[in-house]
């Protein structure tokens, strides 16, 4: 699980689009901002999903950890991971001038999604599953892993041939694209393996 999370994080900060030169090669964190010039509209928000989905997965992952003995015990490790989840999601936060400007509507979806990460991080700290609900975190991790792998990859594969035609040279997928894909698939796979067992993991 940790390997999958690490791959998604490193992938977002690594090369996604491998163009013919430095000026036409983009990191994951640059993809959405650059592709707004291609008229993708709201679809470009899919390139902002990796840090948001990673934040959600980190917070939900702590829901599978064993509880400390005693109701008043404070699990600093779990709350540290939840704080990390929020910080990671802020990689997708718009600039202040964007959310206060005339075109702020196109940035509000990202603000709402980051708000969801904050809400899930808080709720996960008070999660005490009842019988029949102990598999819910794993189901959510499977869904998020599949979503984080599929949606950015789908949009990337839509714009890749378009860019190749414009530039007149082939552009390819960089290591960051593959790390995001593999990392999310790995998280979903671990969730699938844990589903038959249900409940909380034996170790964090």
Q: Low-confidence stretches at least 5 residues in length (pLDDT < 50)?
A: none
What is the multimeric organization of the chains shown? single chain
Question: Average pLDDT value?
Answer: 83
What is the SS-derived class? mainly alpha
Helix/strand order? HEEHHHHHHEH
Neighbour order of strands in the largest sheet: 2-1-3
Number of strands: 3
Described by strand count, sense and barrel closure, the largest sheet is:
3 strands, antiparallel
Give the % helix: 55-70%
Radius of gyration: 18 Å
What is the overall shape?
A: globular
**Proportion of strand residues:** under 5%
**With helices defined by DSSP (H or I, 4 residues minimum), what is the helix count?**
8
The count of domains is: 1
Q: Determine the N-to-C terminus distance.
A: 10 Å
In short:
58% of the residues lie in helices and 4% in strands.
Description:
The longest helix is centred in the C-terminal third of the chain and has 32 residues, at 136-167. Strands 2-1-3 form a three-stranded antiparallel β-sheet. It is 58% helix and 4% strand. It has eight helices and three strands; from the N terminus they run αββααααααβα. The relative contact order is 0.21. It has helices at residues 2-12, 28-35, 49-61, 76-89, 96-99, 108-124, 136-167, 175-194; strands at 15-18, 26-27, 172-173. Strand 1 (15-18) and strand 2 form a beta hairpin. With 204 residues, the chain is mainly α. It has one domain (2-65, 74-194). The mean pLDDT is 83. The protein is globular, with a radius of gyration of 18 Å.
């Amino acid at each position: 699980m940790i390997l999958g999370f690490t791959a998604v994080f490193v992938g977002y900060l690594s090369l996604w689009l491998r163009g013919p030169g430095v000026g036409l090669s983009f990191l994951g964190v640059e993809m959405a901002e650059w592709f707004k010039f291609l008229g993708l509209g709201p679809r470009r928000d899919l390139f902002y999903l990796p840090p948001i989905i990673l934040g959600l997965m980190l917070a939900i992952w702590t829901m599978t950890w064993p509880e400390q003995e005693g109701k008043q015990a404070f699990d600093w490790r779990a709350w540290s991971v939840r704080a990390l989840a929020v910080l990671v999601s802020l990689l997708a936060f718009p600039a202040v001038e964007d959310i206060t400007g005339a075109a702020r509507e196109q940035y509000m979806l990202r603000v709402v999604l980051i708000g969801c990460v904050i809400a899930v991080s808080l709720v996960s700290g008070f999660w005490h599953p009842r019988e029949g609900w102990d598999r819910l975190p794993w189901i959510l991790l499977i869904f998020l892993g599949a979503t984080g792998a599929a949606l950015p990859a789908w949009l990337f594969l839509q714009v890749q041939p378009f860019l190749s035609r414009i530039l007149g040279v082939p552009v390819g997928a960089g290591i960051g694209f593959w790390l995001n894909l593999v990392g999310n698939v790995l998280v979903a796979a671990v969730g699938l393996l844990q589903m038959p067992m249900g409940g909380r993991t034996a170790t964090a």
